[in-house]
Specification:
- There is one protein chain.
- The protein is α+β, with helices and mostly antiparallel strands.
- It has a domain at 12-129.
- The chain has helices spanning 3-8, 50-53, 84-87, 93-103, 110-115, 152-156, 159-164, 166-175, 208-221, 259-262, 277-287, 291-307, 361-368, 372-386, 389-395, 400-407; strands at residues 10-19, 25-35, 41-48, 73-75, 125-129, 142-143, 185-190, 193-199, 229-234, 237-243, 255-258, 319-322, 327-329.
- The strands form 3 sheets. It has a 5-stranded antiparallel beta sheet with strand order 4-3-2-1-5.
- A hairpin with a 4-residue loop joins strand 12 and strand 13.
- Helix 9 (208-221) packs across helix 15 (389-395) and helix 12 (291-307) packs across helix 13.
- The longest helix has 17 residues, at 291-307.
- The N and C termini lie far apart (61 Å).
Length: 411
């Protein structure tokens, strides 16, 4: 590093706070980062807060890469990525665009993004600049009744117009979800219940809200864990409301950690080049409280992803959830079909980019460590659920040519 680079290197400190399942907000630790003028990250340091370290109900933010120790932890990086438990707290592409629009810039670098985090968030962890000593508020999502006034530019993806729509930007920043993906979405509160609202766009090939609702109900019919979902009408547009599963009965938050975070390269912090369902199964066996049940859940999701051609089954769409007692595979989420024939799945099984058919459940279960009898039970439940596919599409209001196209995914 040259002397000029040293002088221009930007250094920032942050505190990490947790909203416990009880609703209590506690400081978890301190984070320090350095960023070079070209935007590359280096010198990542994290230390758990001593008081948090001594709590009887403390859990590690990442049981693999950030075990619960009070000594400072230094993370190597190739300059592009952050440790997974930090990365999971940051906005997705949709959220980054919102922050950039608010700041009037085309691209937001990592430290600028982290210093402008605000609003609601999935999960229990918030990153706050170290100059802010008070614990952050853990507000819910925006009032659902107000979002119909969001500018049309949001749904069309016209980011120049969005940057000029102050009311819309304020709502987007307040409810900007940090869940994966680049689709328009908001965390909302509807009559005291917290939801993730996902919106159709004008350029969508089909009614995404309706089709994802049908997919989630296939998962539910198969007896697998899935959040409640409802379709709603907002003016001329439909949206899908998915009930948040990160909120405890006491109004606190459960800890969420994506499988992508757990599988990051510890020497570069880069995302896995290509993940596999076997990788997720290994994580479940290592960390989950009830691995047998979670492995059956994973097998069921794999078979449904295969049958309905959900090729967006990447590692950020599988998470572990800590409910205050132990780790569990989270309910299924983000299941949307791809009509493209021959499309590869993001996650492989047995090294193959095409997932096995439902009839090959025993073979798939063997690769995941699920016994033959359990695999056959999952196969029967998934087949029975898929038999409802055309009915669920009708229930969602899908008809005409769109219905004919989609019903063929599982006929």
């Amino acid at each position: 590093m040259t002397i000029s680079q040293i002088k221009k290197t930007r250094r920032e400190g942050f505190y990490l706070w947790r909203c416990m399942p009880t609703g209590e907000v506690v400081k978890v630790g301190a984070l320090a980062l350095a960023q070079l003028p070209n935007g590359r990250i280096q010198d990542i340091q994290f230390k758990y807060d001593q008081e948090y370290f001594q709590r009887t109900n403390a859990i590690p933010l990442d049981p693999l890469h950030s075990p619960l120790i009070s000594d400072r932890q230094d993370y190597e990086t190739a300059g592009r990525q952050l440790p997974g438990f930090i990365d999971d707290c940051l906005p997705d592409d949709w959220g980054r665009r919102i922050v950039a629009a608010r700041l009037g810039i085309r691209h937001v670098d990592t430290l600028t993004l982290m210093t402008h985090l605000s609003g609601a968030a999935m999960g229990d962890v918030k990153i706050v600049s170290a100059d802010k000593k008070e614990p952050p508020a853990w507000q819910g999502g925006v009032n659902y009744s107000t979002i119909s006034g969001i500018a049309e530019a949001v749904w069309s993806g016209d980011w120049n117009a969005i940057a000029e729509a102050d009311q819309s930007l304020s709502l987007l920043l307040t409810g900007g979800s940090r869940t994966g993906g680049a689709r328009p979405k908001l965390l909302v509160n509807d009559k005291g219940v917290e939801w993730l609202a996902k919106f159709n766009r004008s350029q969508d090939n089909f009614d995404m809200a309706a089709v994802e609702w049908a997919c989630l109900n296939v998962v539910a019919a198969a007896g697998l864990k899935v959040p409640e979902a409802v379709i709603d009408q907002l003016g001329p547009r439909r949206c899908l409301k998915v009930k948040r599963f990160d909120i405890s009965p006491q109004g606190g938050r459960y800890h969420l950690l994506t499988c992508n975070a757990l599988l990051k390269d510890p020497y570069s912090q880069d995302d896995p080049h290509q993940g596999s369902y076997e990788d997720i199964a290994n994580i479940i066996r290592k960390y989950c409280e009830h691995p047998a049940a979670d492995l059956e859940q994973l097998l069921g999701q794999l078979l449904i992803n295969s049958a309905l051609r959900n090729t967006d089954d990447h590692l950020r769409n599988f998470s572990l959830l800590h409910d205050g007692i132990g780790w569990h595979l989270s309910p299924a989420y983000d299941i949307v079909p791809d009509e493209t024939m021959g499309a590869y799945h993001q996650i492989t099984l047995s090294g193959k980019p095409f997932l096995p058919a439902v009839e090959n459940a025993v073979e798939a279960g063997k690769a995941l460590g699920v016994g033959k009898a359990a695999s056959k039970r999952v196969e029967v439940r998934v087949k029975d659920a898929l038999a409802q596919w055309s009915y669920l599409l009708k229930q969602a209001g899908v008809d005409g040519v769109e219905y004919e196209r989609l019903v063929k995914l599982w006929a």
